[in-house]
């Protein structure tokens, strides 16, 4: 038990610790978000005793401040947008959204920021949950400091898995800290809709939150340092999303860097490098993520605090035999679903090594494979229009040295698009490897395209030959018929 007492001979406090029991497990997991939960689930299923440590809410960033609340906020926005495109329904949905009801529904999706249900799930798999701050304290050792100051020591016979995720990264700007900026957490948990909102950034968080708050009634200004939105996707994606946001009333300024931020009498003022000043009630910085590894004891095992953790394809940290890193912290793909995939792979690898079973590295397609494949990383951006992509963009494929060809199709030419109503705008691209005759990447943008993505993921991950795709017949009339149009365009 760590106890603080006043030293009678000094003006400061000193710490002393009485001996506590050291508790041994097969596996200790740092972080009880979706990634850590999946590691624990796999190792418990293999019969390994597992402890999971969490300093905040069980369920992690995704459940309370990212995936779930953001999509709960976006769903009414996108449903209204779809309805407004349909004759016979459009006139019925011309009024404003009920912002209070949208926020209340978001609260339900986050369980009002209570994690009782998630805790019950951890208990149901037989893992032991420790609440508190977990830190490495040497090889295969973790200390957990609880809110009451009590310290427990956990040891791991086989593995420690770091699944602590990321936090929003704020730039070092004059006046920013004092101005009280929003990050993704404040945006997704907002209790009120600001009358004016500045969004700094042009990526996924920036575009999704601009979509939400404009629809809920904010006057939104987006300040983008680069040339456009969603720069990591095909260029036409950002162009279509920017066009739709602009039509909705969002003011998008590209090539604009924020140099300082101040708050005067409740008003936020952002000054840019071009001398412009933008005023708002709140300012959201969506300018990247940093790993939550700065205070988890990495220095005790020879690693740099605050660093991304480099891993091999079994998700084991390079240079170690017992430390694993899954999800955002290894910087391979900052996506919840990809982190959960990595967690399943890591759980398989830990369990196999614990049992002395050879890893199935020669069989990457096996259900119990213990090596991760990152060639087909999927992502959906829930803007209006939606954007979805898997694998490599054309530029990425060319940089990787592949001889490729991009095949583009206007999604509005597909019969199923007409079911979405008037004025459907969208585009699809597949990047074909001309030597292997397989797909290196696929991108869609348009209403409803998120549901198209898994078919593309299967094609890319499975390296399905283009000729075989001809025999995967899309149903009529659905927008999945875009596959037929793409193949026809490729054949010429």
Short summary of the structure?
With about 500 residues, this protein is of the alpha/beta class. It has helices spanning about 35-45, 60-65, 65-85, 100-110, 115-125, 175-180, 185-190, 205-215, 235-250, 335-355, 395-400, 455-460, 465-470, 480-490; strands at about 1-5, 15, 20-30, 50-55, 130, 135, 140-145, 150-160, 165-170, 195-200, 220-225, 250-255, 260-265, 265-270, 275-280, 280-285, 290, 325, 380, 385-390, 405-410, 425-435, 440-445.
Report on the architecture of this protein.
With 492 residues, the chain is α/β, with parallel strands linked by helices. The chain folds into three domains: 2-59 and 115-167 and 291-355, FAD/NAD(P)-binding domain (3-Layer(bba) Sandwich), CATH 3.50.50; 176-287, FAD/NAD(P)-binding domain (3-Layer(bba) Sandwich), CATH 3.50.50; 385-491, 2-Layer Sandwich (Enolase-like, domain 1), CATH 3.30.390.30. Helices cover 28% and strands 25% of the residues. The chain has 14 helices and 23 strands. The protein has helices at residues 34-45, 60-65, 67-84, 99-109, 116-124, 176-179, 184-188, 204-215, 235-248, 336-355, 394-399, 453-461, 466-469, 482-491, and strands at 2-6, 13-17, 22-30, 50-54, 128-131, 133-136, 141-145, 151-162, 166-168, 196-200, 219-223, 251-253, 258-264, 267-272, 277-280, 282-285, 289-291, 323-325, 378-381, 387-391, 404-410, 427-433, 438-445. The strands form six sheets. Strands 3, 4, 5, 6, 7, 8 and 18 form a seven-stranded mixed β-sheet that branches. The chain has a five-stranded antiparallel β-sheet with strand order 19-20-23-22-21, with helices on both faces. Strands 12-11-10-16 form a four-stranded parallel β-sheet. A hairpin with a 4-residue loop joins β14 (267-272) and β15 (277-280). α3 (67-84) crosses α4 (99-109). The longest helix is centred in the C-terminal third of the chain and has 20 residues, at 336-355. The chain is globular. It starts with a strand and ends with a helix. 45% of the residues are buried.
């Amino acid at each position: 038990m760590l106890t603080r007492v006043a030293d009678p001979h000094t003006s400061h406090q000193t710490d002393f610790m009485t001996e506590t029991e050291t508790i041994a497990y097969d596996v200790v997991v740092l972080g009880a978000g979706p990634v850590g939960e999946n590691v624990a689930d796999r190792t418990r299923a293999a019969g390994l005793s597992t402890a999971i440590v969490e300093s905040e809410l069980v369920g992690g960033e995704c459940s309370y401040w990212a995936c779930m609340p953001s999509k709960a906020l976006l769903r009414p926005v996108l449903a209204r947008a779809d309805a407004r495109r349909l004759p016979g329904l459009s006139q019925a949905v011309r009024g404003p959204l009920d912002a209070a009801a949208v926020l209340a529904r978001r609260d339900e999706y986050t369980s009002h920021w209570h994690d009782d249900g998630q805790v019950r799930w951890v208990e149901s798999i037989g893992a032991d949950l420790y609440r508190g701050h977990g830190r490495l304290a040497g090889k295969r050792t973790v200390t957990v400091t609880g809110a009451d100051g009590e310290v427990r020591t956990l040891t791991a016979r086989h593995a420690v898995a770091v699944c602590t995720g990321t936090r929003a990264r704020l730039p070092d700007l004059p006046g920013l800290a004092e101005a009280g900026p929003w990050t993704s957490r404040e945006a997704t948990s907002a209790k009120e809709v600001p009358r004016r909102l500045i969004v700094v950034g042009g990526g996924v968080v920036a575009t999704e939150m601009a979509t939400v708050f404009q629809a809920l009634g904010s006057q939104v200004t987006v300040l983008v340092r680069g040339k456009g939105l969603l720069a990591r996707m095909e260029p036409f994606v950002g162009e279509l999303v920017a066009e739709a946001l602009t039509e909705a009333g969002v003011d998008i300024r590209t090539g604009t860097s924020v140099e300082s931020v101040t708050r005067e009498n409740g008003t936020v003022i952002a000054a840019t490098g071009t001398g412009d000043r933008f005023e708002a009630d709140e300012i959201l910085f969506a300018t990247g993520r940093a790993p939550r590894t700065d205070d988890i004891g990495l220095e005790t095992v020879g690693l740099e605090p605050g660093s991304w953790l480099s891993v091999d394809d079994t998700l084991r940290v390079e240079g170690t035999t017992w430390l694993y890193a899954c999800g955002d912290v290894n910087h391979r793909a900052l996506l919840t679903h990809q982190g959960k995939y990595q967690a399943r792979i890591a759980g398989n690898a830990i369990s196999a090594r614990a049992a002395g079973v050879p890893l199935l590295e020669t069989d990457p397609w096996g259900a119990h494979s213990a090596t991760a494949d990152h060639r087909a990383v999927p992502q959906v951006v829930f803007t209006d229009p939606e954007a979805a992509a898997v694998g490599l963009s054309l530029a990425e494929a060319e940089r990787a040295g592949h001889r490729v060809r991009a095949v583009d199709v206007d999604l509005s030419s597909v019969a199923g698009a007409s079911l979405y109503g008037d004025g459907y705008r969208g585009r699809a691209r597949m990047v074909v490897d001309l030597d292997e005759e397989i797909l290196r990447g696929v991108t869609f943008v348009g209403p409803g395209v998120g549901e198209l993505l898994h078919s593309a993921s299967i094609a890319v991950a499975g390296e399905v030959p283009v000729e075989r795709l001809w025999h995967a017949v899309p149903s009529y009339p659905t927008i999945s018929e875009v596959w037929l149009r793409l193949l026809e365009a490729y054949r010429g």
